[in-house]
């Protein structure tokens, strides 16, 4: 039996996460959920200038709103000693070496290589320096950056999304793992943490494919083996433009503020660009059952807010009372009639907040629209006695039909306008018992304006 998977979502807290980031988080969390695994939220916060506590807090809030609950939370800023130990190990293995070129010198070399028709790959000139050369550079005040020496050959892996994959390491420059100022770039801390956490599957966007060969070699150098990798397709906006934390486009916070249903956001974020049809789901567990990394498309997928709005409404229309009871109570929908009220109005709300408008129609001061005062006065006189339920509407309107000969719109529309002040809305068979006799009578007998 395979061990339970351990996956991670590793955002940099340098801004608010957008729907593309949420896609990665959800794919990891749902994969763990489906397979009885562990989901780790790891903040890659080694960029001390741009990383902010408020962004980390907002990321946790956004994930919680989506229903994503981490089993562990880690922060790279608290783990620098582990990266120093790994760097020392790589130096001892001869895989991490100092290089003194400035960015300007490297740029000139790349341009020369390109002019000669050669790939702009670092030529490992630093490995040819003598002790005297290095001493002279240090005496001149130069500080080295540190590069990881790649083994030659092709790195192959079976991608969970893309299938058999490979990268020729001869086409890559030895990557810089540590800057001149001692700061680590993303690559080494990520691998060190994945090893320490026992990560078994790295599920991330396809923009990281080119990093995979380097990271597999790092895993093998430090731990002997690498986890499995899966690179999912990316999301764009409706116009096909890429998403960025810097622009705030389609941020989770903005969708939450708009009142979009979190289940709809999760369903569209995960199902768009896959073999599964985009549709409402009743729970994240149901969504987890639909996630198959092998069914994701290879092309970018467009996340359309208009499609999200429609899906959000459909999600609400199917939502049972228990799923929204707490949120309804927060906007004043509570008490013994709360469930019946929700059943009556849910098909007429696009946002859950719209339920408050219908609560006002049921219990508030409605301005009746009076088209035919004589008919409405008769209707008030014929309101059924006794307790009201969903059968009351049919009983009442059948009496009015028999007495007046009205039918269809001529019968029903004046009653709707008087009882609700609206041209359309929920079925009156469901609303009438909630409106109640006293309010119904008052609205039917309201003077014409």
Question: What features would you describe in this structure?
Answer:
The structure is a single chain. With 449 residues, the protein is of the alpha/beta class. It has 3 domains: 1-96 and 151-169 and 182-318, HUPs (Rossmann fold, 3-Layer(aba) Sandwich), CATH 3.40.50; 321-363; 373-444, Arc Repressor Mutant, subunit A, CATH 1.10.10.350. Helices cover 45% and strands 11% of the residues. The strands form 5 sheets. Strands 1-2-3 form a 3-stranded parallel sheet. Strand 2, helix 2 (53-66) and strand 3 (72-75) form a beta-alpha-beta unit. Helix 1 crosses helix 9 (262-271), helix 1 (19-34) packs across helix 10 and helix 6 (187-197) crosses helix 7 (212-223). The chain is elongated, with a radius of gyration of 31 Å.
- Spatial extent as radius of gyration: 31 Å
CATH topology of the largest domain: Rossmann fold
Show unreliable segments. none
Helix content: 40-55%
Number of domains in the coordinates? Answer: 3
In the CATH hierarchy, what is the architecture of the largest domain at level 2?
Answer: 3-Layer(aba) Sandwich
Taken in chain order, the helices and strands follow as: EHEHEHEHHEEEEHEHEEHHHEHHHHHHHH
Cα(first) to Cα(last) distance is: 76 Å
The CATH superfamily of the largest domain appears as HUPs
What's the average pLDDT?
95
Described by strand count, sense and barrel closure, the largest sheet is: 3 strands, parallel
User: What's the assembly state of these chains?
Assistant: single chain
Coarse morphology: elongated
User: In terms of structural class, how would the helical and strand content be classed?
Assistant: alpha/beta
Q: What proportion of the residues form beta strands (DSSP E)?
A: 5-15%
Count of DSSP H/I helices: 18
